[in-house]
Write a structure and sequence with these properties.
It contains 5 helices and 16 strands. The chain has about 230 residues and is α/β, with parallel strands linked by helices. The chain has a 6-stranded mixed β-sheet with strand order 6-8-10-12-15-16, with no helix packed on it. A 5-stranded mixed β-sheet has the order 4-3-2-1-5. About 15% of the residues have low confidence.
């Protein structure tokens, strides 16, 4: 079961709430009541009050990840488990100025691999030639994601631009992750669990049977998510 990770980088709860509301607005229901794991880039925050911010938005927080030692007692007192990486490593102390400049970062941004800046005028894209297996999550920041193989059930592929899948799509595909309504999803064999473009989405039960196993494109027509044969 995959869960979203939200990176908290400010101790200002109003700033966190504002950034979280913007993220929810972009998602347009995709994050509704989705389990959340919190990653803390700061050494201190009012954990109980922070959890109230998420509870008010019906976002259940189930654990903390990569926490500072100074926060562990408060996190455990709030009833949350602390997930550790192998080796028990912790992040370095965050600079307060840098932390306040990025109050909440979505899991997709946290999970992305570093990418070199694209040359001026060039389209940014990420090309993956191997299958995307269950539990994996790939993100193309600022451009398209091109998968030359299959996306397995339980896997997730995300792009700020379009998503192209040249094998079977059995997992989740999200295009226009930052709100680009012109983004599209293209795949040769549709068997998806979730399809989403700019926050509008369909789950498996909403996908017409006639489209399953077909080569399709997924696009927005106003507020409606459309699935067309290719």
């Amino acid at each position: 079961m995959s869960m979203s990770v939200l990176r908290v980088g400010s101790r200002d709860l109003e700033l966190v709430a504002e950034a979280l509301d913007k993220q929810l607005q972009k998602a347009r229901g995709l994050l509704g009541e989705m389990p959340i794991v919190l990653e803390f880039a700061i050494p201190e925050i009012a954990v109980d009050k922070l959890l109230d911010v998420f509870a008010e938005r019906r976002l259940p927080v189930v654990a903390a990840f990569r926490t500072h030692a100074s926060l562990e007692a408060a996190i455990r007192h709030a009833g949350l488990p602390v997930i550790r990486e192998q080796g028990g490593t912790r992040p370095p102390r965050a600079d307060p100025v840098e932390a306040d400049s990025a109050p909440v970062e979505s899991e997709a941004a946290v999970a992305a691999e570093p990418q070199e800046p694209a040359p001026a005028g060039a389209a940014r894209q990420r090309i993956v030639t191997t299958p995307v297996r269950s539990g994996q999550r790939l993100y193309a920041r600022g451009g398209d994601l091109i998968v030359m193989a299959a996306v397995g059930a339980g896997a997730e592929v995300i792009a700020d631009g379009c998503v192209h899948i040249y094998g079977s799509l059995r997992g989740r595909a999200i295009a226009g992750a930052q709100g680009d309504e012109s983004a599209r999803i293209f795949c040769r064999d549709l068997q998806a669990e979730i399809l989403a473009v700019a926050g509008r989405y369909k789950v498996a039960d909403d996908i017409p049977d006639a489209m399953r196993g077909q080569a399709v494109q997924v696009r927005l027509d106003g507020e409606r998510l459309c699935i067309d044969s290719l």
